[in-house]
Amino acid sequence: MITVHYLNDSRAHRIVWLLEELGVDYDIKQYTRRADMRAPADLKAIHPLGKSPVIEDDGIVVAETGAIVEYLIGKYGKGRNLVPKGEEEKRRYSYWLHYAEGSAMPLLLLRLIFGQLPVRSPFIIRPFAKAISSAVTARLIAPQIDNHLGFWERELARDGFFAGPDFSAADIMMSFPVETGMGRVDYHGKREAIDAWLAAIRARPAYQKALERGGAYRFAA
Ligand SMILES: N[C@@H](CCC(=O)N[C@@H](CS)C(=O)NCC(=O)O)C(=O)O
Questions:
Q1: What is the CATH number of the domain that holds 132?
Q2: Which of 34, 46, 65, 167 has the fewest CB atoms within 10 Å, i.e. the most exposed one?
Q3: What's the CATH code of the domain at 214?
Q4: In angstroms, what is the span from residue 65 Cα to ligand 1's centroid?
Q5: Is the CB of 38 under 6 A from ligand 1?
């Protein structure tokens, strides 16, 4: 039996969603974020980094969302149509699978960290921290995020899903950057294709079931 170590409002939603798409049985062990949003220390007993998601499957521990997705698809994905068949689509699939955590999330995390810099700084230096945060965000981070969001829009406008005309596990991987990105940054570019894609993934029964099993996922709002 698979156990998903599930931190509230986290990337773990993607794994529960994938398991629902795969139709595999699993249990969820819930963890609640501390007041500072960090994971509780007991997650470190499962994996040294203490992050979520992490899964256990018959004694095997797998961490890192992309690696978990590849593991689950490799073991349980046969006949589930979550990996495209065409060569070009397979290349696109692999690209988005790696891009989600390798390129998109570091940028969104930088935005989050610089956004929190003023409130997390000692009171006496807060005005300086605020000035640094605003300048770095406006000059370095926001333009790059805009570039990425424009790229998503153009890619999705091609044929509806990230890897091609059909839904795939690449869309599950991309849900976290897109949902956190569209929910947390000011983006003034075109977003019709992104919005249509968000509506399509959220309408999937497996996505809804994952919310039911894992609990409300605030980043999806
Ligand atoms: N790249 C990793 C990131 C894991 C990660 O940072 N997870 C967050 C939840 S979305 C976490 O555990 N945060 C709590 C903490 O860092 O203490 C993955 O995709 O699995």
A1: 1.20.1050.10
A2: 34
A3: 3.40.30.10
A4: 9
A5: yes
Distance 85 CA to ligand 1 centre (A): 30
Same domain, yes or no: 216 and 196: no
- What is the band of 218 on the pLDDT scale with cuts at 50, 70, 90? confident
Alpha carbons within 13 A on the beta-carbon side of 208: 6
Angle ∠(66,4,164) on CA atoms, nearest 5: 35
pTM of the model: 0.96
Q: What is the pLDDT of residue 220?
A: 56
Domain that holds residue 132: 87-204
Calculate ∠ Cα 207-111-172, nearest 5°.
20
How many angstroms is it from 33 CA to the middle of ligand 1? 11
Tell whether the model's pLDDT for residue 36 goes beyond 90: no
Residues 130, 197, single domain; the answer is: yes
Question: How many domains is the chain built from?
Answer: 2
Q: Are residues 139 and 113 in the same domain?
A: yes
